[in-house]
Structure formats: structure tokens, C-alpha cells
Amino acid sequence: MDVQLFRIDDRLIHGQVVLGWVKYLESRRIVLCDDAVARNEWERELYLSCIPTDLEAVIMNIKEASEYLSDSIINPDRTIVLVKSPGTILQLAEQGFLPSKINVGGIHFAEDRKRYLSYLFLNEAEVKDLKSLAEKGCQITCQDVPTGRSYSLEEILR
Amino acid sequence: MSDTRLTFIIAHSNLAKALLNSVEKILGEQDHTFIYSNEHDSMTVLANKIEARIKASHAENIVCFTDLKGGSCWNLASMLNRKYKEIIVISGVNLPMLTTYFNNRHKMAFGELIDKTVADGCRGITKLQDGK
């Protein structure tokens, strides 16, 4: 079974996710998958500090998340997975887990990135990674908030 | 070190700009105050801009107002607070707290100023129903 939302968002746990998508999808769990956050105790605490009491949030490194998401016994229904970049999903794929659908929710401005949407700026490596994921069969769409318009990857990169 | 009280407002969309504009309509122009939106920049880019201001100011006391606790602006401010001990982060920014802050910024001891700012921000939220 697929998770409700498998999302690339460089802000990880923030308002759009906790107040927007969680309420819209009636999610019960957030899985934040990021090696750097997982190994930094202070950052882990920061991201978990504002989770509402009716929501569960867990932080895993790529290896742990791959095992967790590949485990057929765990029911990932009502779960949102968050990663910072498409590169993280390629690493998950190397570990054995590939999501069927990917939501690109936000990658913001930096010097080496080009603008594609108001919330989507990509450098060459990120474009290449997204294309690799599409070639592996992932269905990739870009949408920041639940009421926003959804754009396919082809439409964005055209 | 100087006793400049450096002030940042970091918020969603154009809220920080609108809040500072509103404060300035009431109290007049404010110095050493910088506003940021999370709309365009990655958090790293935004952090670099703010850190450049911090380093240039040599301020001993810095206040960072943010809107949503747990949102990206607050997450960023929390990271800055961890790195720079002189930064105090206040979430839930509203006009009552800002008018108190800017009215007293150069008049009160820093600790008292912060306490009064937060208290007046809370006091500014009330309910009026059926005339009471």
C-alpha cells in the first residue's frame, strides 16, 4: 500500500505540511527521512517540538526509512513521508524502496538553482535526479498546498 | 559591542512587510529593523542574509519575531537562536506586541522589554461578544 503523500520539501516539517496536508488528508503519521537530521539530536528535537498531540512523527535515516517503508507488515496508510531532495529518494531506491508517486512540494531559491515555479527552484543535479526517478517509473507531480494546481514533471521541465 | 537592539521580523508571504508598515504608520520609522519573507529563498539563503546583518551590527541584543511556532520561519529563527546566544525568538507576532516593543525598545532593560512585549502581545487578543 502507498503512503498518502511522498513529498520532497526542503523545509521538512513546517506549516504547509502540519497545518495544510495533514488536516486535508487526515494523516496520523509523519516520517521525516533525512540522514543529517537523524544524526543531529538538536535538529530532531526542533522538528518534533511542534507536532500536535494527535499526530505521530518519527525521524529516520535513509537505511531505516527504506526498511520501514519496504516492510509489508507495517500499514503505511495515513502516513506522509518527507525528504529534502530527489537525491534522498534515489538513495532510498538503492536501499530497496522506491515510491510509486512523488509530490514535489518545495525546493527554494539558492544561487545555483533556476526557477520553475514560485516554490520550485532546481539546480542541474536536482533536474537530473528527478528525471532518473521518472525513468525508474515514479509518477512525479509538483504541488505545494492541497488546493494548489498540480503540474506534471514533464510540464515543468518542458 | 553596542547597545543597538537589532530587530528581525520573519514571516510568511508579505506579512513581515505589512506588520512593519503598520507599526510605522502608528509610531513612525524604525531603525535597525529588517523584514524577511520565507516565500522565495531556501532557508540556507535566508539564514545567510540574516547572519550577515547580525555580524555587521555587533549588536548585543537581538530580537527575532516570527509568525507560526513550528513553521519554517520559526524553525530558522530557532536555528539562529542556537548559534547566536544574543538572539531572542518570539513567535505569534502581532501588532500589539510590536507597538509595545518599538515604543519601549530604547527605554527599558532588555529582559523587561521582552517580557512586556510578550505579555502585551497576549493581552492584545480578546473577545468582544454582545457588548462585553
Radius of gyration of chain A: 15 Å
Shape of chain A: globular
CATH superfamily of chain B: Phosphotransferase system, mannose-type IIA component
Number of helices of chain A: 7
Model description:
The complex is a heterodimer of chains A (158) and B (132). Chain A has a single domain (5-157), classed as Phosphotransferase system, sorbose subfamily IIB component (Fructose Permease). Chain A is 37% helix and 25% strand. Chain A has helices at residues 15-25, 35-38, 41-48, 62-70, 86-95, 124-135, 153-157, and strands spanning 5-9, 29-33, 56-60, 79-83, 101-106, 114-117, 120-122, 139-142, 151-152. In chain A, strand 8 (139-142) and strand 9 (151-152) form a beta hairpin. The model of chain B has no long low-confidence stretch (mean pLDDT 96). Chain B has five helices and four strands; from the N terminus they run E-H-E-H-E-H-E-H-H. Chain B has helices spanning 15-27, 43-57, 72-83, 95-104, 110-123; strands at 2-11, 33-37, 59-66, 87-90. Chain B has a single domain (5-123), classed as Rossmann fold (3-Layer(aba) Sandwich). In chain B, strand 3 (59-66), helix 3 (72-83) and strand 4 form a beta-alpha-beta unit. The longest helix of chain B is centred in the middle third of the chain and has 15 residues, at 43-57. At the A-B interface, helix 1 and helix 3 of A face helix 2 and helix 3 of B.
List the helices and strands and how they pair.
The complex is a heterodimer of chains A (158) and B (132).
Chain A: E1 5-9, H1 15-25, E2 29-33, H2 35-38, H3 41-48, E3 56-60, H4 62-70, E4 79-83, H5 86-95, E5 101-106, E6 114-117, E7 120-122, H6 124-135, E8 139-142, E9 151-152, H7 153-157
Parallel strand pairs in A: 1-4, 1-5, 2-3, 2-4, 5-8
Antiparallel strand pairs in A: 6-7, 8-9
Helix pairs in contact in A: 4-5, 5-6
Chain B: E1 2-11, H1 15-27, E2 33-37, H2 43-57, E3 59-66, H3 72-83, E4 87-90, H4 95-104, H5 110-123
Parallel strand pairs in B: 1-2, 1-3, 3-4
